[in-house]
Structures are given as structure tokens and as C-alpha cells.
Design goal:
single chain, mainly beta, 5-stranded mixed beta sheet, 19% strand, Peptidase M11 gametolysin domain-containing protein, Peptidase_M11
Length: 338
């Protein structure tokens, strides 16, 4: 069969020749009829770009919209969903049979002589197939549903696949929605507040009547604002820790003056250090503290060397020797002679 097809003209004529051959080989068993599973098994038609789905690419409660061309109008024309989320780990894989069936979604409408369907209106075919692409894989194809506009198909547990036929354009694409549900209805647990369409009915959370009896989840209480941490209080400095700024070097002492010149008075002593500021009083409760940011204490300044002691000052004027008392002017007393 493949040799006959390889000798046919290219383009769509080759695809439509495949259709005629499939009609010729179609049997009541349905193993070789012209449908999406058999076209995939033979490698003649592929899924739409982004239309080969599994548990990773089709998450729960997140519907996906696809536009399906007619199956015989495009070499990429159907969807294939491998429901790997339904595996339990106990299934066995083989070269000829998959452990779980895959779902094939295709758009069919009447196109004589290739698709002599009744009725002629567009419809969506849903098939399941457990075979592989091995030439010796002869598994039956099962037609699950024929959907018309506004109709829906729901696969049983554990597959939970939902297919909804939205609309179509005559001779053009069909718009469908694919969704993976996690139950027959939405309700219980967090399914009414998770932002997902868990039952794939097109209604999310409390827009779904299934959530009417579920109390809305109360908003979590707001945490009070954390109090602002005041800067650390600078340590109170004692007068001994305050150091006077370094004094400028003193002028050299003049040489001692001569005895006739008076000695200049000595320099006045350094003024005492200012007293330390009083400690900060505690603020009343509830009043934010406004303190200056901490600063490191100034480094101690070097102490100036002691001044040399001046030599003893000579007397200003030499002292005169003590005067002897003047001689008495009293006349001597005359003693009478005997």
C-alpha cells in the first residue's frame, strides 16, 4: 500500500488517495478504517502543532481552545491526548499495545467522494486506540462519540477528559475546547477558591452553582505592622572621657629678664572642660524617640609636654644693709665725786 502511495502525485492528491485506499481496506472490525487513530498509526497525518497532549501539557481545570481543520484538508488536523495521569504504575508497556488508550479528536464533514458521511454537517469524532505505530500492532479503534455544535463528551474515570464542540465554519475549521477535570462537580476542599474550572463546565469557583453551598474562604487576617526599631542609644560620656582638643604649641619662653626689668606674668591656666550634657530623659510611652544617630567617640588627643619651671626670679632691687640706730644725743649723766 505504501509503495502505491509513494508513486502517486504529491500534495493533497496523495492524502486523498490514502483515503480511497483506507475505504477499500475498511473492515467491520474497524482496524483499517479512515479515522484519526489509523492515520496516526500509519504516519500519514499528524496531530495539530501543540495538539499532542499528556498530563504535563494538559493540567487540571485549565481549558484549551483548538481550531480543527477537516481531517482530509491538512496533514496536521487532529488532536491526540495520551492520558498519562490515569496510569497507576502497575501497567505494562509493550511494542504492540499501550498500557492505556489514547484519545483522538478529529473534525469530519461530508466531502464526496472522500468522506461520504451522513449527516453532512460538521461533527467532531472522538476515538480511543490502545495500539502503537508498530506495523504489527492490530488493536481495535473505538468510536466514543459523534458531537455536533453545543454538544459535549465526558470520558469516565480515571480519564476525566471533557470535549466540547463550540462552533464551526462551513467547509472550514471547527472550534473545540479540551479540558481535564478532577471530578464530576466542583465543591469541597479548596476547589471553590483555587481559580480553576475543576469540573470543566466552563464556570470557575463561586461562579459555579456547585460552590453555592460552600462558604467562601475568609480572607486571612492582616498582620499588624511591625514597630519601627529606634536607633541604639549612644552611651553617655563622662567628663573624663571627653578630651580637650589639642592645643597649639606654646610660644617659647623669653629668656629671664635682667634684674632691672620685671618678669612678665606667667600664662593663665587652661580653662576647665565644659560639663557633659545631662542624660536623655525617657520619652513617654507611645512617643517615637528621635535621637541622633550614634557616632564613635573622638580619639584621645596627645597631651602636651609639661612646661619647664622657670628659674627663681631675682629680687627686683638689692636690699641695703640694716641701718644702725643713730647715737643717742642725751648728755651723759654726771656722777658727783665723793
Amino acid at each position: 500500500m505504501n509503495e502505491v502511495i509513494s508513486n502517486a502525485a504529491g500534495g493533497w492528491s496523495r492524502l486523498k488517495l490514502c483515503v480511497l485506499i483506507m475505504h477499500y481496506y475498511c473492515r467491520p472490525s474497524g482496524r483499517t478504517c479512515y479515522n484519526a487513530p489509523n492515520m496516526w498509526r500509519l504516519g500519514w497525518v499528524s496531530p495539530l502543532p501543540g495538539g499532542d497532549l499528556n498530563d504535563t501539557t494538559l493540567p487540571v481545570g485549565q481549558p484549551m481552545i483548538f481550531y480543527l481543520p477537516g481531517q482530509n484538508e491538512n496533514p496536521h488536523s487532529y488532536l491526540r491526548i495520551n492520558p498519562t495521569w490515569a496510569t497507576t504504575g502497575s501497567q505494562t508497556y509493550s511494542r504492540l499495545k499501550a498500557p492505556i488508550p489514547a484519545f483522538f479528536i478529529s473534525h469530519r464533514y461530508k466531502e464526496v467522494p472522500f468522506d461520504n458521511l451522513s449527516p453532512a454537517n460538521s461533527h467532531i469524532a472522538v476515538h480511543t486506540f490502545s495500539g502503537t505505530q508498530d506495523p504489527q500492532s492490530y488493536q481495535n479503534v473505538t468510536l466514543e462519540a459523534f458531537l455536533f455544535v453545543k454538544e459535549e463528551y465526558r470520558a469516565p474515570m480515571p480519564f476525566n477528559l471533557v470535549v466540547r464542540f463550540v462552533t464551526y465554519k462551513s467547509g472550514g475549521n471547527a472550534t473545540i475546547i479540551i479540558c481535564r477535570a478532577d471530578g464530576e462537580e466542583e465543591g469541597g476542599g479548596s476547589s471553590c477558591s483555587d481559580g480553576l474550572d475543576n469540573d470543566c463546565d466552563g464556570l470557575v469557583d463561586f461562579a459555579d452553582p456547585d460552590c453555592a453551598y460552600v462558604a467562601p474562604k475568609p480572607p486571612s487576617p492582616r498582620l499588624p505592622p511591625s514597630p519601627r526599631r529606634s536607633p541604639p542609644r549612644p552611651p553617655a560620656s563622662s567628663p573624663s572621657q571627653l578630651q580637650s582638643p589639642p592645643s597649639s604649641p606654646s610660644q617659647p619662653q623669653p629668656p629671664p629678664s635682667s634684674p632691672s626689668q620685671p618678669q612678665p606674668p606667667a600664662s593663665p591656666p587652661d580653662s576647665p572642660l565644659p560639663p557633659s550634657p545631662p542624660p536623655l530623659l525617657p520619652s513617654p510611652p507611645g512617643t517615637p524617640l528621635h535621637r541622633e544617630p550614634p557616632f564613635p567617640p573622638p580619639p584621645p588627643s596627645p597631651r602636651p609636654p609639661p612646661f619647664p619651671r622657670p628659674p627663681p626670679r631675682p629680687p627686683a632691687f638689692p636690699r641695703s644693709p640694716p641701718r644702725s640706730p643713730p647715737p643717742s644725743l642725751t648728755p651723759p649723766t654726771m656722777t658727783p665725786s665723793r
